[in-house]
Amino acid sequence: MKRNKQEHEIDLKSWLFKFRSKWYWFALSALIALAAGYVYVKSSPRIFEFKSTLLLGDQQTGSKRAQELLEVLDVQSKGIKVEDEIGLLSSAEMIKQTLQKLNFTVAYYKVTDHWLNEITNLVVEEQYKTAPYEVELDTTALQLVDIPIKVRLLDKNTYELVIEAENVPRYDFRSNSVVGSLPIVNFKKTLKFGEHYQDDNLSLTLQRTDVEDPTGKEYYFVINSLESLVKQQQASLGIAPIDREARVLVLGSKGSIPDKQVAFLNTLMAEYVANDLKEKNQNGLKTLEFIDSQLATLSDSLRQSKQALSSFRSNNRIANINVQSNINYEKLSQLEAERARLNTDKTYYENILDQIRNGNGIAQSVSPTVGGIQSPLLNNLFVQLAELNQKKAGYRTTATEDNPMLRKIEGEIASTRSAIEANLQNLVESANISIGNVNDRISKIESTLAALPENERKLMDLQGQSEFIDKKYDFLLEKRAEAAITLATNATDKKIIDKASMVGSTPVNVKPKMIYLLALLIGLAIPAGFIVLVDNVDNTIQGKNDLAKITNIPFLGVVAHGSKSDKLAVMNNQRSAIAESFRSIRINLQYLMADSNFKVIGVTSSISGEGKTFCSVNLSSELAMSGKRVVLIESDMRKPTFSKYFPVAESIGLSSFLTQGLQLEEVVQKTYMENLDIIPCGPIPENALHLLEMPKMQELLSLLKEQYDYIVIDTPPIGYVSEYFVLMRHMDVNLYVVKHKYTNKEMLSQINELYDTKKVKDIYMVINDLNYNKTYEYGYKKNAKYYYA
């Protein structure tokens, strides 16, 4: 656990080192981010938050006291669904109705006199009743909407109107609809304040106000269409209950002009409450209209029946009727009253059924309130229909016609209406059956009364008819009084608790300290993220720890970064960092191989360009300078490079010895360094691999071992050719060179496989061209550069 913790700390320090080495990236990024934050703070409009609260009632149709006393309706309480009410409040129709009560059509703006506006118009403020001019709009004419219309104040009496825009809609405020559009508008006109201007696309008058605004650099206004205003207010409006089960709604809004947002929220709540009361009054008026229509019909019938009874009594001088006749006529009167009631009920049912089939408003809100429908199922269906209509209104605020939920609700509404229609049809048929039954009973009584004297019978008929009409009239008068009381006592149970007010005194969108801190963090995070991304994407070897993660081959040492032109760094400058690197490698190699009598050192790499020849030459030089006799063999006969390091005779060399039978003394060439000889590759053969496989190679190494302390073989890279695998059996020790930030990690897969399968032994890794200033692992060495010349 301790080791893991230490490794984690080293990784963290390594990242800090990488970040510190690119400190100028962080400084530049932070500066740019802070500048962007400053521009954002200065250019963003100050948005404030506003709140108000509204209480929802229990959705009764009249005052609660009147409901309890009169019991006009026999309908179960429907309660209230908060989600539906939120949908109605935030619906486009409700917001549109609210905006039509307010004067938000023209929005005024000014470009302030700020230095940022010298570049472009960044700092813009909205004005509300503070502009130095006022626009009087002619809503009977077409207008260009939703584009900025610039106003340049020339003096106190004149101004210049400028419009430069594309795809400009032409709007008719009478129908609140777009009537075509103009592809390009390029308009400039000098006018006087108070002078009306009108053309095919614009009709307005600008009046100069008493406001003087020295901070305004440029002014413009926007004529907003009703649809754009609705979208703006819907986007900023938020409605939610204060608690999950609460009936108190919190209405929130955000905007840059406090007076406008306060007026909007207050007007929205007032319109919502007024609509609720209006809807209840409309339902009551429908009830009164139905009763009045029935009373108007009965009034004439009642007058005619009383007149007929009075005339019959007067003409026939009839005052009394015997008791038996009275009993029969009383029964007949009761039956006729029952039949009349059934006919009234039937008419009522048919009336409602007709309204349902024709889609009239009685099916859109609540169930009928008069008529004595005693069917709980039908009443519940009306309640369910009203709830579905409310839910549909709520979904329409955010959903389109193709929304699956909206289609589902419309299906449920159609199903409920069908059920109501079927129930009403059943009631009508039931009434017909009851009327037929009563008619049969009346026929029997009339047959009994037929034996009575004609005058008495006629008198009883007239009395029964008059009493029936009188009772029916009294019944409807009673119901009308109840309905009138209900209508008179109607009161909305929705109440504005708190009017709109601003929450706090600071903007909710622009907080300079927070924005500058966030900008600074972003400015630091961007280069840090970029460094991390580049480091993760970079698949090259970054250092010793990186190398240890991808191979189990032991690590021998590193070669410091130096000048590319100094090929023989060890010989030319023995106090250089490169010379010290090879000195350290030599000592480590001799220490690791102390128990073995090694002579042959093979140097290879994955691919060309990793510095294996450079390492071979300078390691040989270091061994020679330590007093050892060293011979350096160039076995890469495909791409020889010794000529870049030594003045060599290319006509003879290794290939000559292997093919021409030359003597050893003929192919070994002296260098200007004591103790160091070289054998260049010689003439490039057609098949280098076959030459290296010849017994002569073994013979050559045997001869050299007798004369030299160390034999260093510069071999071809194993990633390209196979010569190394032929020479590998002659090596006592192998050095595998990888180049810092050059060698791809995947290149080590082949040598790893050889090492893991023990096909190659005594192999060590060397990192070449490592820049101490760019790595944390050896960063400490950059402070010791004064030890080097």
UniProtKB/TrEMBL annotation:
Record-linked InterPro entries: AAA_dom (IPR025669), Bact_polysacc_biosynth/exp (IPR050445), LPS_length_determ_N (IPR003856), P-loop_NTPase (IPR027417), Wzc-like_C (IPR005702)
Gene3D superfamilies recorded: P-loop containing nucleotide triphosphate hydrolases
Main location: membrane
Tree of life domain: Bacteria
Domain AAA: 599-729
Leading EC class: transferase
Gene Ontology molecular function: any one: non-membrane spanning protein tyrosine kinase activity
Catalyzed reactions: L-tyrosyl-[protein] + ATP = O-phospho-L-tyrosyl-[protein] + ADP + H(+)
Transmembrane annotation, as ranges: 23-41, 515-534
Annotated ranges, domain Polysaccharide chain length determinant N-terminal: 9-102
Enzyme Commission number(s) of this protein: 2.7.10.2
Cell compartment(s), UniProt: Cell inner membrane
Keywords assigned by UniProt, alphabetized: ATP-binding, Cell inner membrane, Cell membrane, Kinase, Membrane, Nucleotide-binding, Transferase, Transmembrane, Transmembrane helix, Tyrosine-protein kinase
Topology versus the membrane: Multi-pass membrane protein
PANTHER family registered for this protein in UniProt: FERRIC ENTEROBACTIN TRANSPORT PROTEIN FEPE (PTHR32309:SF13), TYROSINE-PROTEIN KINASE (PTHR32309)
Family listed: Belongs to the CpsD/CapB family.
Protein name, entry field: non-specific protein-tyrosine kinase
Organism, scientific name: Pontibacter anaerobius
